[in-house]
Amino acid sequence: MTSFRSVRLAQRPTGIPSPDTWAIESEELPALAPGEFAVGVKYISLDPAMRGWLDDRPSYLPPVELGAIMRAGSVGTVTESLNANFPVGAQVVGTFGVTEVAISDGSGVHIVSSDLAPLPAFLGVLGMTGMTAYFGLFELGKPRAGDVVVVSAAAGAVGSIVGQIAKINGCTVIGIAGGKEKCEYITNTLGFDYCIDYKEETGMRKQLGTALKTVGAQGVDVYFDNVGGEMLNANLAYLSFGARVVICGAISQYNDTEITPGPSNYMNLLVKRATMTGFLVFDYASQFSMAQRRIGAWIAQGKITAPETVVEGKIDAFPATLNRLFTGDNLGKLVLKIT
Ligand SMILES: NC(=O)c1ccc[n+]([C@@H]2O[C@H](COP(=O)([O-])OP(=O)(O)OC[C@H]3O[C@@H](n4cnc5c(N)ncnc54)[C@H](OP(=O)(O)O)[C@@H]3O)[C@@H](O)[C@H]2O)c1
């Protein structure tokens, strides 16, 4: 019998997950039932949403149960199979969890090919985060040429793609990111028009005012919010008439231990006849292959660069790697490569 290790939820965290949030356990691989196959997991996706899945509160997915293997998207190779649709050797993407080996019946699993793109891309730009950028921007942001698009967590997996797609569509793009290096990357490599380093002392509202003046804009037409808090509030203060605020996430609040007050500038939505709408990427699943083809073409044409931070390690590296999302220690899509 083969044994494998996985990361289970040992206790629900308060604030940032700590080592005792997790238990790393070894178990024997059971015999496969008809229709099942085993996947040797190679790349595990690290996502801010994981923090929310640890809390025992209603959300768009049920919380991870205490003692259960941590939920995660991953890519791997079929190592044993009693399912003709997923033969041994097939490369697959699915929600296999934080584990070295997963058993699946094929639900929600797709075959991918490393001939088309490196495997981590199926978790990033051609996977969940790329789809989030695409549908959040087009379906809710509705960008038009000449619009000013502001995106927060702009050097991250979602934000980096949002800004580049907005540029392809003729928008002026202002990114907000933490630190000089990230800001230089966003403007020099990704082609954003301006970057606000929110870690500088000047307040967000003042910095956004300067950014808008520098790019010659009157206000924000689309704000793609990955962060919440002060960034959301500052953008609400500068909305253009008919602006669209896209609520993608609020990472600045995911580890809060008390309820965070809402944005005080929200009445500007009324004044500017603007909208503020949340969305969930999975609602667009039926259109993913169309978006993957479009993004794939942009990558092939050199119009999109997809930054990735690939951390190599054993499954034990998961807890520390997850926390890098909350300290900003990633550029683009953060992935754990199981060695
Ligand atoms: N709605 C959906 O369907 C959906 C799907 C996927 C993701 N999301 C959301 O999209 C957002 C981005 O996710 P991602 O996977 O692309 O992650 P990411 O941007 O690659 O990584 C998270 C980034 O957030 C920034 N950050 C962390 N704590 C912060 C804080 N307190 N204040 C400001 N910035 C902070 C860090 O960048 P800096 O160094 O710049 O601080 C960090 O690199 C998240 O809010 C996530 O929940 C939503």
Task: State the gist of this model.
The chain is of the alpha/beta class and 339 residues long. It is 26% helix and 26% strand.
Structure description:
- This protein is α/β, with parallel strands linked by helices.
- It has two domains: 3-124 and 307-338, Quinone Oxidoreductase, Chain A, domain 1; 128-282, Rossmann fold (3-Layer(aba) Sandwich).
- The chain is 26% helix and 26% strand.
- The strands form three sheets. Strands 3, 4, 5, 6, 7, 14 and 15 form a seven-stranded mixed β-sheet that branches.
- Helix 6 (229-237) links the parallel strand 11 (220-225) and strand 12 (239-247).
- Helix 2 (128-141) packs across helix 3 (157-168) and helix 2 (128-141) crosses helix 8 (288-300).
- The chain binds NADP nicotinamide-adenine-dinucleotide phosphate.
- NADP nicotinamide-adenine-dinucleotide phosphate binds at residues 47-49, 128-129, 132, 153, 155-159, 177-178, 182, 226-227, 248-252, 279-281, 325-326, 328, 330, 334.
Q: Main attributes?
A:
339 residues, alpha/beta, Quinone Oxidoreductase, Chain A, domain 1, Rossmann fold, 2 domains, seven-stranded mixed beta sheet, six-stranded parallel beta sheet, 9 helices, 15 strands, globular, binds NADP nicotinamide-adenine-dinucleotide phosphate
Topology:
Layout: E1 3-9, E2 22-28, E3 37-45, H1 49-53, E4 74-81, E5 91-94, E6 101-104, E7 110-112, H2 128-141, E8 148-152, H3 157-168, E9 172-177, H4 180-189, E10 194-197, H5 204-214, E11 220-225, H6 229-237, E12 239-247, H7 268-271, E13 275-278, H8 288-300, E14 308-313, H9 318-327, E15 333-338
Parallel strand pairs: 8-9, 8-11, 9-10, 11-12, 12-13, 14-15
Antiparallel strand pairs: 1-2, 3-4, 3-6, 3-15, 4-5, 5-7
Helix pairs in contact: 2-3, 2-8
